[in-house]
Amino acid sequence: MDKLFLLSLLGLFIIAYGVSGAFVSDSDIDMIKELESFDIEEEDDDDVYSYTVPVWRSERGSKILMNVDSFDAIGDGVTDDTMAFRKAWETACSTSKSVLLVPKEKTYLVNATTFKGPCKDGMVIQIEGTIVAPDEPELWDPKFPRQWLEFTKLNAATFQGDGVIDGSGEKWWAESCKKNKSRPCKGAPTALTIDSSSNIRVKGLTIQNSQQMHFTIARSETVRITGVRVSAPGDSPNTDGIHITQSTNVVVQNCKISTGDDCISIVNASSGIKMKGISCGPGHGISIGSLGKDNSTGIVTKVVLDTAYLRETTNGVRIKTWQGGSGYVRAVRFENVRMEDVENPIIIDQFYCDSPTTCESQTSAVKISQIMYRNISGTTTSKNAMKFACSDSVPCSNIILSNVNLEKTDGTVETYCHAAQGFGLWCCAPIGETA
């Protein structure tokens, strides 16, 4: 069995190479220490409560339960329960310490809706049953082309329960240009969106078969996502599991994600993101990006993935940017990751091009620096266990490798490297060559 084994002991023993081959500087040591020490607080299970009694306006402790059935929801999976959900929301939103209950053993058909705040603090959305979307794209409300269930402008709200949010996405996938080349490429709804909110907790829900992305956190801060399950077929197009954009102080922990695109994707204007205890596969791995599309600016900083298992994914841990963009990705730590039969375990791609036509070569790029890979092991299905395809004009810098052990059962593995510099790794081979 041939094996790629890269080991760099950081701290007491550092083997460091820059452009000139000089040893690491004091500023580099400070940078490494900062990367190693960055962390944010995780969720405490003891702080999450459970309210499952399906009674409207019954007192349970200091909470007031509001059952959607009491607002004339039917829950047979056929009758449109959208208006009942909207009425229940309006009442719960205006009531202090309310619990909006979707009871178990029922299925509620709900059309695209925005549930708007601000609401009274301390609201709980308790989902025990199933919420299902209409399955006909032609009948979708044109006022909501990119969303199904959107919650906006909330503070100190909790989403929890053992229920299911089901996007009924099969017909949407069939119409995607990625599955049907004769169809135009266009967006589709996200199943669950939390937008412009703060101090949000999401625990235990299952989100499945979304029309496109499953769960988006947008323009929000201080969000804790725990024990969420995301599920869609591996060939379902653009069905990212958890998508984080323009958000800060977000923790995703103990989540199991199986989908047709990135298990977790982190994009522009996001900072202070921690992922821990993540199971991913099938899917496209855990990604920062894409960033820089259409010459835009992308900025992502302070991201940690700590403890993950990826199985039979297209990518492992990935950073992807388009040519022509600007901005930067820096202060990222991927550690304690186990991979099994992953095609591209470690990849930085500054030439990303998810387009039906060839992308134009451009010199500007999103700057990528201060990226640490530590304690990463497992198996790859491709020749290149690590791929660093960086820009000539904006090369990757301060790439840190520590205890990376990747192997392939049926051949030799290599590292593809272009315009990347770092500690334990230094290479600047031309495109098409390996180093």
Automatic annotation (TrEMBL):
Q: Where in the cell is it found?
A: Secreted, Cell wall
Catalysed reaction equations from the record: (1,4-alpha-D-galacturonosyl)n+m + H2O = (1,4-alpha-D-galacturonosyl)n + (1,4-alpha-D-galacturonosyl)m
User: Which terms are listed as keywords in the entry?
Assistant: Cell wall, Cell wall biogenesis/degradation, Glycosidase, Hydrolase, Repeat, Secreted, Signal
Q: Name one GO biological process term.
A: cell wall organization
Gene3D superfamilies given in the database record: Single-stranded right-handed beta-helix, Pectin lyase-like (2.160.20.10)
- SUPFAM superfamilies from the xrefs? Pectin lyase-like
Q: What is its main location?
A: secreted
Pfam families (alphabetical): Glyco_hydro_28
Endpoints of the signal sequence: 1-21
Q: Does the keyword Secreted apply?
A: yes
Q: Which family does it belong to?
A: Belongs to the glycosyl hydrolase 28 family.
The name on file for this protein is endo-polygalacturonase
Organism expressing this protein natively = Cucumis sativus
Identify the gene encoding this protein. Answer: CUPG1
